[in-house]
């Protein structure tokens, strides 16, 4: 099978590409515009594979996307390309509107036009998988979980742009009969994550003796999902998910932000203690909260477990241990990336 993966040079997209090329016989068409958070080095070991093709294209340019469909003739599409950092969406929402909404529209139109040219037997196999976030559901209180039928209530420019793209994908299925499926995931972490997100930022600041900025009171809760577990889930959704359905993907790992940072400190202290013997917890600094900061996310992943047979393999502790170890072992990679990482808004 030939699968077009948009955003395949990004954090989650590169993990999906590695999974497909290492664990399956599928052919990958990796379509990415190579913005600041993308890095082909995440695919260094796979770039020589005859089953991996890279296409530099921008979703905001409809002609480029249409040309990629004509040239590569994919049998399925997995759409991961997106602007994804909430802090950046507060500073500059226009990029999120243009990429996440207009870009998804362009991709849907190109996929629809291509799909309509296919013979019946190929139409029966074609699928468009849109990868989204649990942030579209808004914020939870102390109890409850996001389920597939939870009403949308996005609270940031980022989550609003992803909610809009979800609705476009749903509409293209119901109006134009494009066979689409949607997945909504919890917070991902793991190797190759761009160092502006919470976990890699805390690891790298911890190593460099810099402050570890925690928003507000640090009690905001997120459900954490190891990126390789997510890659397996996405492959299952594309293969077995029913057109018109959506699937929530979560790691069953609800953790307060302050507990995430404290665990990173303990792991760094274990792997690479500070020269002065002081715990890195002394570097934790509470900063002004992010505007519109959702209090709690929690995913009910029963549907994907029940219908597709997926479960996460990693606990938060085991996945975080692997992640910290990876950053310690790949210093040159993250040093090359840090120049493009932004500051967290709470530091301003």
Describe the overall structure.
- The protein is α/β, with parallel strands linked by helices.
- The chain has a single domain (2-193, 224-253, 293-315), classed as NAD(P)-binding Rossmann-like Domain (Rossmann fold, 3-Layer(aba) Sandwich), CATH 3.40.50.
- Helix content is 41%, strand content 16%.
- It is built from twelve helices and twelve strands.
- The strands form three sheets. It has a seven-stranded parallel sheet, with helices on both faces. A three-stranded mixed sheet has the order 7-9-11.
- α1 (11-23) packs across α8 and α4 (93-115) runs parallel beside α6 (157-176).
- The radius of gyration is 20 Å and the shape is globular.
- The chain starts with a strand and ends in an 11-residue tail after the last helix.
- The mean pLDDT is 95.
Compile the SSE list and pairings:
Elements lengths: L1 E5 L4 H13 L3 E6 L19 E5 L5 H11 L3 E4 L6 H6 L1 H23 L4 H4 L3 E7 L23 H20 L3 E6 L1 E3 L8 H10 L4 E4 L5 E6 H14 L5 E4 L4 E3 H15 L12 E4 L14 H7 L7 H14 L1 H7 L11
Parallel strand pairs: 1-2, 1-4, 2-3, 4-5, 5-6, 6-10, 7-9, 8-12
Antiparallel strand pairs: 9-11
List keywords for this structure.
alpha/beta, Rossmann fold, 348 residues, three-stranded mixed β-sheet, seven-stranded parallel β-sheet
Summarize the entry for a quick read.
41% of the residues lie in helices and 16% in strands. It has helices spanning 11-23, 62-72, 86-91, 93-115, 120-123, 157-176, 198-207, 227-240, 257-271, 302-308, 316-329, 331-337, and strands at residues 2-6, 27-32, 52-56, 76-79, 127-133, 180-185, 187-189, 212-215, 221-226, 246-249, 254-256, 284-287.
């Amino acid at each position: 099978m030939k699968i077009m993966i948009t955003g395949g040079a990004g954090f989650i997209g590169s993990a999906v590409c590695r999974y497909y090329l290492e664990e399956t016989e599928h052919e990958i068409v990796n379509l990415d515009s190579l913005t600041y958070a993308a890095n082909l080095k995440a695919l260094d070991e796979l770039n020589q594979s005859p089953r991996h093709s890279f296409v530099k294209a921008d979703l905001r340019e409809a002609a480029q996307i249409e040309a990629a469909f004509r040239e590569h003739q994919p049998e399925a599409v997995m759409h991961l390309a997106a602007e994804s950092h909430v802090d950046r969406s507060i500073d500059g929402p226009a990029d999120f509107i243009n990429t996440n909404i207009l870009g998804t529209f362009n991709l849907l139109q190109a996929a629809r036009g291509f799909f309509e040219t296919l013979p019946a037997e190929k139409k029966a196999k074609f699928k468009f998988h849109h990868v989204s976030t649990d942030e579209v559901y808004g914020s939870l209180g102390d109890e409850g979980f996001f389920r597939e039928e939870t009403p949308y209530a996005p609270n940031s420019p980022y989550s609003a742009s992803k909610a809009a793209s979800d609705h476009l994908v749903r509409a293209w299925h119901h109006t134009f009969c494009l066979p689409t499926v949607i997945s909504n995931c919890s917070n991902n972490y793991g190797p190759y994550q761009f160092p502006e997100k919470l976990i890699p930022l805390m690891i790298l600041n911890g190593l460099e003796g810099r402050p570890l900025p925690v928003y507000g009171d640090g009690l905001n809760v997120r459900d954490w999902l190891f990126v390789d577990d997510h890659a397996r889930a996405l492959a299952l959704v594309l293969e077995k998910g029913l057109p018109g359905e959506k699937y929530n993907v979560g790691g069953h790992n609800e953790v307060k932000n302050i507990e995430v940072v404290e665990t990173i400190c303990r792991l760094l202290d274990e792997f690479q203690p500070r020269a002065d013997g002081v715990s890195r917890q002394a570097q934790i600094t509470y900063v002004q909260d992010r505007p519109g900061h959702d209090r709690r996310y929690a995913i009910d992943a029963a549907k994907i477990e029940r219908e597709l047979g997926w479960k996460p393999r990693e606990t938060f502790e085991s996945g975080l241990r692997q992640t910290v170890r990876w950053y310690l072992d790949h210093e040159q990679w993250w040093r090359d990336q840090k120049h493009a990482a932004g500051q967290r808004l709470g530091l301003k």
